[in-house]
Amino acid sequence: MAVSNVSDALCTQLDQTESLLRQVYHGCAGLDGLRHPETSKLVKTYYEIERKLVKSFPDHPGSLDLVKVDRLGADQLWRYSNEVLKELEPDYCLLKEVGAVMNKNSELLASIAEHMAPFSLDYTAGILKQYMQLFCMTTRLFLLLRFYPSKLIIQLYSLVQGHASLRDKADRRQEVADRKDMVQLVSAFDKPIPRLQEYFKSVTPRISQVLDQIVAPVLLAFATARDTQESQILNPLRLPETDIQGQERMPVPAAIRGLQLLPKLQDWAIFGVLICPGAVAIPKVVQMIRKLLETNFWLQIYWEYGDWVHALYDAYVQPTLVSQYKSVKGSTGFSHRKALKGESKDVIDNALSVARATCMQEHCARRNLAQQSLEQFLVLMKADISQLPYNLQSITAALTYGKSEVLWYFRNVNEVLPTGVLQTLQTQPLRESSTDPSVSGLIAAIHAMHDLLLQYRTAVQAFVIDTIHTLVEEKISPVLVQLATTGPQAHSRPVVAAVQDMASIIEHFEALQLPNREQNDGVADLRWARAHWNSLTGSLFSSGAVLTAAELDSASGNSGVLYFMNQCLELCEYVDGFHHTIQRTASLSELYDFPEKLVACMRSTVQGPAEGALFSSAWLYVLSCFQYRQGDSVHEQPFSMAVRLGDDYMKGIADKVKTLLLRISEAHNRELAAPLTVSASYARSQNAAPTMQPAPPMAKSSKVATFTSATLSKAATLKNRVLAPTATAPVYQPGQESLPANRGSLAPLEDSQTALTNLGQSLAQAPAIQLAPTYVMVPAEFLRSAVQDAFKYQITQLAFADKEIQRPTVLAGEVKRLISLVHYIAPLMGLHASVLVQEALVSCACTAPGSDRAQAFQQDALGPSRPQSQQGSRADKQQDMKPEGQHQAAPPVPVVSSIAEWYMTTVVRDHRNIGVSISKARRSFVSLERPLDIALYASYEELRAVCQTWGLYGVQELALRSRSVLAEAFSTLDSVMRMHMPLLQRLKAEYLDHQTCYEACRAASSSLRDMQQALQAVRTAARCLYLRLLLSDAAKTEFAAHAPVVAGFFSGASQPDAEYSSPDTADMFDLPRCNSNATGGLSHVHATVDPALMQLIEGNEDPQCVQRWQLWPLLLGLMHWSPECGKATYIAAQEAVSNNMNCITICSTAFMAAVPAPDVTDKNGIMSSADAMQCYMKCSSSALQLSSVQGSCHGRLLIMNELAADLDDRSLLEDSHYAYTAIRSALHQAFVPMVKQGTPAY
Predict the structure, then answer these.
(1) From CA 919, how far away is CA 1137, in angstroms rounded?
(2) What are phi and psi of 847, to 5 degrees?
(3) CA distance 844 to 842
(4) Closest CA to 710 of 694, 721, 726
């Protein structure tokens, strides 16, 4: 092999060995069902045969009588012998290839060690890395084969090949000949270290030279955290000219390069001494190994596979140390013998004792040092980002140092050291809690620096390219010109060839530009330049070279041209492989192998001390690194694990946020006299015109939808602004709060607030994290969602009290307190409080509640009457179609829907029979029975509180559900009207013919049927109409400023009446418009027709509906003849009618205003609206004559007088005094004292 082809040969063998390493790693899990379907089935089913075959190794399995072991298993094995042979052949060939590659690797390494000069990081760094990487990778491959089922594969393969019909005799003879070599190879897997020592015996001198001259100086210089800190190599403020002071003086570039290679150098040292124990003859190597054994327990072989380093050294290095001690102790005095024993024979035992005592503390100090260094670099870079390229090498060294400490922690912590050969082990130094906050802090620093480097990638690459150009122009090109033109070396053929080779490489350096994403020609050129340089250095540093590196350097006047060429090649890594280089130094994909420890650390960060929560977003970066393990995973897919752990982690954070907010809220309630005190400056600012603050832009996510004003359309933005509930009410803003002077009692509050602040700042400032190709997690969105969920939970807990809803005014006060608390906490967490509160209240109003109290209220208070919307969903219809006994519990409904349903059930329908009545004087509902004071829930002031708390979403839900109840009552009354249509027609004819109807009403009253059902429907309709009227007035008061702007964005709203010049809030929800009478006070309300009632009458499919409802006043008039009406009494304490018979008044005026009637009576005898109302007054007032006989005149007169006042206010009669005239006439005929016009009769 030519020495110039060393690099190519090393690359080829590295690729083959790495490929074998992956295949063996995948096979270590056993015979899987994917690649070995039949074999794995047979092995798992008939495990006795498997056990017998493995136990009989290395004997040929043909001599075994498997029938005696398992007859059925043996029959199945012979039956599927061809399939088993096909499935095992790749594994058998893999073992054969391993043997061939092992021999080839050992020969290549021995050849290079024999023909090349000593390695150096300054000149032959590329070949050195490839050489040692091949040495370590070959060692890892052989050690990993211990976990490979090689014995079972060989035994099964040898057994079935005699029964398979796929091979001819020549192939079988060849298989038998190869079996001997295979058995010899596999037998060495049980004790691989002696076989590896035999393989690499010839390269021991070269490994010893590398360990002595290259590895040991670096590892001894940075043996402990104190050594590294005192060297100031990771200090961004150190002087660049200061050399590293240690056992040997080390220049800063060499020290930085050593730190960048620190994990590799540690592997070289541990594997080198383990496989080549002759290196312990060098004192510096023994000292280096002692330092490594004092700080390491676990030796990683490949991913999660490894072994305990002290046990391996005790078994395979200790004999060499003992023999060395015995050979030397005879020539030394007694005084030096004890020191020699400690430096040779007792090195491993002494190192283990030190490791048990100080290992965990040492690595904790290293983690703190790495975190401190990275944080200092971040502060410096943020202050002056132009310093980033100049500190690039130091930053990558700090990243490598920090990453190695994170990996050490997860590989070693909480592990149980084996006893066995380590008889001196009495304690378990690694059995500590895996909740060290320094780990999350270090990962957070690595994450921040990783993102900073990627953010300024272009600037860094431009600086690197400029540095390469400067080196070429100032240090390399002049020397090459001098070599090629002057002196005797100009005519030397070897010198000319070397100059030409370097000149060809320089051409690629000079042509370097920033990488183009579309064209990768520059990348290919750099790869060629790197390979060409390795070939050139291989020839220059060959022991038998025509021109050596020393001769070339001497010819150039010791200019160091080779050193600068090697430096340029190292810098090229940041040009063509920037992302790969940064990922190699900062990626934590190796933590994929430790899911249990990772989950424990993530949980401890959230549930642990408040200081640890500041680094809560660091673990999401770890999960995002799992994507780089896609090709090597044998367990759960990395993407799947990252998404699963990420979701669980964010759920834990959401629970923690909820707990902290509840704790803070309880502390405020318990400790503070007032929740938060607002400063006078803020109070004065409330007098100014309100302004809407735009929400800050949020990052979009494929998982969480972003809901901000910046992403909404104009209409949706405006609608959301107006529909936002209490967020539009005056709330406390951050910065205006003041806490009591005595802060000693606020310790729990401050601890919770600190934890919540740290948690919020960490997540709010974290960038979007991609955990899978189609899954992007935005921590800020999850944080906002967690705060909103906690806010919603508290509101839903407050919104319900046992079987009743919370009093709206009380709830509004509690919600304002919570809003003030959120406005105080949200800025500390880095969130926009106004948008957060707005979205939380809207979501709370429109989504199902998450609190236990709300769900219990829906199950107990609402009972079997499940809330029904105007149009049920398809799922609800399918549920209703199920046979009896198959109905399931109704799913939870939104909070506002539950509250609205409570109003319909308790107030409108009065299902609890508490005697709900209407008090127009108080603009409220009252209850005659005392189990529940309905006035505390259903008054004008309480409905205003509903609007304040739930916004127009609450108005919308109440309007929709009241419309549904009104439709039910209308349907009942329409059936009654249809039933009594002939009777009402006769009564109408009597009135039109004679203008009197006393006798006709008296006769008709005795013919009425289902009058009790009609009266109940009238009561329900009246309560519903009055509730809609109060709701409309309350909504108008609360949202009048928004109505002119928003009404145009709502489709389906009723057109405003001609008498109104501007839109009204009521138009958005088809509620009646209303205006308070300035002269009449709050007890008099002018209202237009209820749009819902008008649509029920006009939109009915029955063409006779309008004509039928024109007779509606006559039916109401007959209701005055009922005994129920005569029992009505006035209750002065509540200013209401006892049995709510004043519902007739509300229904008469409301329905007649909604009925479209002709202006005049046509020839068919259709009554006009005025005639119908006059007939109604005649019919109802004639009942007063009956009342004088029955003694029930007072109740009917009470209702009639209220009706007359209502007709007068609404101007439904052409003669405004007709109603009072009819009452006086009826009273005169009944010999009842006259009642002055407009004076109540009670």
Answers:
(1) 8
(2) -120, 165
(3) 5
(4) 694
Residue 1082 DSSP SS3 = strand
- pLDDT at position 835, please? 80
Here the tokens at position 1095 are 């649509």
CB distance 956 to 1053 below 8 Å? no
Q: What's the burial of 930, exposed, middle or buried (CB within 10 Å: 0-12/13-18/19+)? A: exposed
- The CA distance from 759 to 749, in Å, is 15
Q: Which of 670-679, 685-694, 955-964 has the least mean pLDDT? A: 685-694
Q: How many CB atoms lie within 10 A of CB 382?
A: 11
CA 914/CA 932 separation, integer angstroms: 7
Concatenated DSSP letters of 891-938: PP--HHHHHHHHIIIIIIS-TT-S-EEEETTTTEEEESSSS--GGGTS
pLDDT tens per residue across span 1083-1142 = 444 456 888 888 888 777 677 777 777 777 777 777 766 666 656 667 766 677 776 677
Determine the Cα–Cα distance for residues 1069 and 1052; give it in Å rounded to an integer.
Answer: 8
> How far apart (Å, rounded) are the C-alpha atoms in residues 404 and 1103?
86
If one counts every other C-beta atom within 10 angstroms of the C-beta of residue 1050, the result is 16
Residue that the structure tokens 């990348």 belong to:
523
**Cα–Cα–Cα angle for 463, 469, 475, rounded to 5 degrees:** 125
Cis amide leading into 58 (omega within 30): yes
What phi-psi label fits residue 915: left (phi over 0), alpha (psi between -120 and 50 degrees) or beta? left
Within 423-531, strands assigned E span none
Cβ atoms < 10 Å from Cβ of 885: 5
Contact predicate 834/727, CB 8 Å: yes
> What are phi and psi for residue 1053, nearest 5 degrees?
-75, 145
Q: Taking each helix axis from N to C terminus, what angle separates 714-723 and 940-979, rounded to the nearest 10 degrees?
A: 100
Q: Are 1018 and 1200 in contact (CB under 8 A)?
A: no
Helix (H, G, I), strand (E, B) or coil at 14: helix
Q: What is the pTM of this model?
A: 0.77
How far apart, in whole angstroms, are the C-alpha atoms of residue 510 and residue 468? 8
CA distance 162 to 823: 81
**Residue 772 DSSP SS3:** strand
- Number of H helices and E strands in the chain, helices first, is 56, 12
Q: What angle do CA 1161, 1162, 1164 make, to 5 degrees?
A: 115
Cα(894)–Cα(261) distance, integer angstroms: 60
Q: How far is the C-alpha of 186 from the C-alpha of 518, rounded, in Å?
A: 49
Q: Which has the closest alpha carbon to 673: 750, 734, 731, 742? A: 742
Burial of 727 (0-12, 13-18, 19+ CB in 10 A): buried
Lookup: tokens for 409: 């922690």
State the pairing for strand pair 924-927/916-919.
Answer: antiparallel
Average pLDDT over residues 866-886: 40
Q: By the 8 A CB rule, do 948 and 1077 touch?
A: no
CA dist 249 and 232 (Å) reads 14
Residues 1030 and 834: their CA atoms lie apart, in Å, by 30
- The per-residue pLDDT for range 561-595, each reduced to its tens digit, is 888 999 998 999 998 889 889 999 999 999 999 99
Residue 411 CB partners (closer than 8 Å, separation 6+): 298, 300, 306, 594
Integer Cα distance of 882 and 889 in angstroms: 13
User: What is the secondary structure of 784-821 as a DSSP string?
Assistant: HHHHHHHHHHHHHHHHEETTEEPPHHHHHHHHHHHHHH
Gap between the Cα atoms of 91 and 85, Å rounded: 10
What is the C-alpha to C-alpha distance for residues 1183 and 333, in angstroms, rounded to an integer?
Answer: 137
Q: CA-CA distances (angstroms) from residue 151 to 156, 164, 173, 303, 316?
A: 8, 20, 20, 23, 24
Tokens encoding 995: 């203008």
Chain position carrying tokens 């060294």: 397
